[in-house]
Give the backbone structure.
Amino acid sequence: MYVSELDRLNIIKELLNEETCKELINLSKLNVDEYKSIDNLKVLIDVLNKIKITQTNDIYVCTGTFITDCDICYQDTTWYTRAVPFDADYAEYRCYSDIENNHTIRAYTKPEFLRSYNPQIITSEFESKHIVLNPYNSNENDNGFNEVKNEFFMNCIDVGQAKSKRLILEKYKRM
């Protein structure tokens, strides 16, 4: 799909340089700026958004560590989540996202924090059974999730899935 989309965009780009197309564009005042240069990453993201990935390499990025806080006002109680440092002893749960299908898992740091959220998973158990990357040890920008995902898929196109997996695992530290 990626190669087909790149081919389609390159044909459009070539056609836009033909005199009859230039005249049509000028007469109709069409905006064709998006076709003048092709962004491979944007094409890849568009293709990935159109497909559903069911089997993955089981590589997750820890996208954040959180606690649940409570504001108690007269007649109202508001619950909200707040990001905390990854190594905080008081953290309640972590979120992990699969780099291939974006599936997100919430796992709790201790059994006493388990909520009605299903499935009920403990972080240590999840991290021992899956590949969990921690690129920047930060809650900002989902801890580099999109960077890892984009790099993985661009590498898949260039060098294949197996080598792409190996490159990602070599580059980013694990939890």
Q: What stands out?
A: Helices lie at 2-15, 19-28, 40-50, 123-129, 145-159, 161-171. DSSP finds six helices and five strands in the chain. The chain has a mean pLDDT of 88.
